[in-house]
Design goal:
Two copies of one chain form a homodimer.
Chain A: E1 5-11, H1 13-17, H2 19-31, E2 35-40, H3 43-52, E3 59-60, E4 63-64, H4 68-92, E5 97-100, E6 108-112, E7 124-129, H5 131-139, E8 143-146, E9 149-151, E10 157-159, H6 162-175, E11 179-186, E12 204-205, H7 207-215, H8 223-235, E13 240-245, E14 256-258
Parallel strand pairs in A: 1-2, 1-11, 2-8, 5-8, 11-13, 12-14
Antiparallel strand pairs in A: 3-4, 6-7, 9-10, 13-14
Helix pairs in contact in A: 3-4, 5-6, 6-8
Chain lengths: ~260, ~260
């Protein structure tokens, strides 16, 4: 029997936090045929709310230090404001969305990141993802919308990187028998050969060409961990990973394809 | 075939917003055997957050006037903070909770309350509840935890009275074939014959005795609409409605039973 396809699409905070870009994203996502999952961020809104509440936002390497007050902020923003705005917008477009954190239905369990050099606070590293309940819901036509929060099974929510949530969800759905395409949306059209030339998208990368492009200095900085995650997902059974712009979510031939 | 029992339990904001009372409630709710649903409020936290953000809370007859800013506050507090705190606390107690607003899976659709004398703003009157998806999840061992938010199918969340959410959920589950007990938790042990005597709980009320107790002036004020809602639920197929204290959720013989 042929495997059923599912698209797991991760969009960053910026896109889902502004009315215009959110509207366009929801239109594009609603137009995408077949089974699908949306994973979102929300960092800018969290920073904004924290600021209004007089809570300082501290970031280390792009990761938010999450003390108890900040955890309340991200719970409100990721689990409430951003997630429910997406859900209600998709419902208006005929998409039967269901907003989830990792605590809901025990979908994603994590442990608090151990303190090595930096104490990230209430930040979770994912341990276990239950793809079977997600798969059941997807087969019923439900479209999960996942917020970047997990839980430790001991009563604590943990702030969790949205790229990680997307990767773990994709892997769990692959284990549950789906043919999974994982799409990371970011501000560029794909992985670029020349960062000043938007037309220089590398259409396809495999692990060998990835290593070569890193050696040549073509791929550098934050793109390296993104691609490492992508190939890890592929080794774990995800069929392909696409790195592209949010405006291209419905045109799956665009962007950079990792296989 | 005998109908399967389900308990729909509604708890007010006060209980779920303080650490001690929340802990006790979650212990009691986790100890309750069989299928169950929890419906919660969160008004005090919403008022508190609104205050911190410099947003004025305006109430008319105990109902919150919900302008656009206030809708954001209740979305964050009801859909995020309060709901996810309950979910994560139940997961830690081995209860497979799933937090929902009415927008999630299109469970509860409403329309914006028409302006008669007062413009309540983004407040929803429930139109339609889908009990079948809830029933499927309940049969799978999932425990829905419902926040007092619904949606209009046009992209708007609407602030919705938690008693109404509980009543509509109970009725929908009755239609889906369950033997439903709906429990409203409030600060007293039940409907009291003498409001100064906590021992004077009326153990059982039917519609005839309700009318008589109102005529006699024994039941008055806010208890009248609560009991009217209760009997409306019973006429719509709910087996019984219990009015009791939150600390008695696991002792279903206590409180006032409406049949």
């Amino acid at each position: 029997m042929e495997k059923q396809k599912v698209n797991v699409i991760k969009v960053g905070g910026k896109i889902v936090e502004e009315e215009d870009t959110l509207r366009r994203l929801l239109d594009d996502f609603a137009a995408l045929d077949g089974y699908k999952v949306l994973v979102h961020g929300g960092g800018r809104s969290a920073t904004r709310l924290a600021e209004r509440l007089g809570i300082e936002s501290r970031m280390v390497d792009g990761r938010r230090i999450t003390d108890a007050d900040t955890l309340q902020v991200v719970t409100m923003v990721y689990g409430g404001l951003v997630n429910k705005n997406i859900v209600v917008g998709l419902q208006a477009r005929g998409v039967n969305a269901l907003g989830l954190t990792g605590a809901d239905m025990n979908v994603m369990r994590s442990h608090k990141r151990p303190v090595v050099k930096i104490d990230y606070g209430f930040v979770g590293d994912v341990e276990q993802t239950d793809g079977s309940l997600l798969a059941d819901l997807i087969h019923k036509g439900i479209v999960p919308v996942m917020a970047p929060l997990t839980h430790d099974g001991q009563g604590h929510l943990l702030n969790t990187n949205a790229d990680t949530i997307a990767g773990e969800t994709a892997k769990a759905l692959a284990r549950a028998g789906f043919d999974v395409t994982l799409t990371f949306c970011f501000e560029k059209q794909g992985v670029l050969r020349d960062e000043n030339d938007d037309q220089s998208v590398i259409a396809e990368i495999d692990e060998a060409s990835f290593r070569q492009l890193v050696d040549e200095g073509v791929i550098q900085g934050g793109m390296i961990p993104k691609l490492q995650n992508s190939f890890e997902a592929i080794r774990a059974g995800v069929s392909q990973v696409v790195i592209t712009q949010a405006s291209h979510v419905a045109q799956t031939h665009l962007g950079t394809h990792c296989r």
